Amino acid sequence: MAKIKVRLVRSTIGQIPQHRATVRSLGLRKIGSVKEHESNPAVMGMVKAVSHLVTVEDVK
Fold first, then answer.
1. How far apart are CA 25 and CA 22, in angstroms?
2. What is the pLDDT of residues 5-58, one digit of tens each?
3. Burial category of 53 from C-beta neighbours within 10 Å (exposed 0-12, middle 13-18, buried 19 and up)
4. What span, in angstroms and rounded, lies between the C-alpha atoms of 4 and 24?
5. Contacts by 41-48, CB closer than 8 A, 24 or more apart
6. b or e along 3-42 (b: 16 or more beta carbons within 10 Å of the residue's beta carbon)?
7. Helix intervals (H) in the chain
8. What is the Cα–Cα distance from 46 to 51, expressed in whole angstroms?
């Protein structure tokens, strides 16, 4: 399965609690933190929900 890198680029301060929880469940804490995840529908849905806070790139 393909992998993706998710990077937190904006702060969660001022965001609704659901978005904060989604960012935490992706394993991101501080701005600039990066995590690798399998590209599956569950993870892609979480990324889409907080797309204004994160960037995504494919891992080769």
1. 5
2. 999 999 999 999 999 999 999 999 999 999 999 999 999 999 999 999 999 999
3. buried
4. 17
5. 43/4, 46/22, 47/4, 47/6
6. ebebebeeebeebeeebeebbeebebeeeeeeeebeeeee
7. 17-25, 41-49
8. 8
Per residue in 20-29, pLDDT tens?
999 999 999 9
Torsion angles phi and psi, residue 33, rounded to 5: -70, 145
Single-letter amino acid code for the residue at 31? I
With tokens 């301060």, the residue in question is 13
pTM over 0.90: yes
* Cβ within 8 Å of residue 54, ≥6 positions away: 6, 7, 8, 9, 10, 23, 26, 28, 47
The answer to whether 5 and 26 are in contact (CB under 8 A) is no
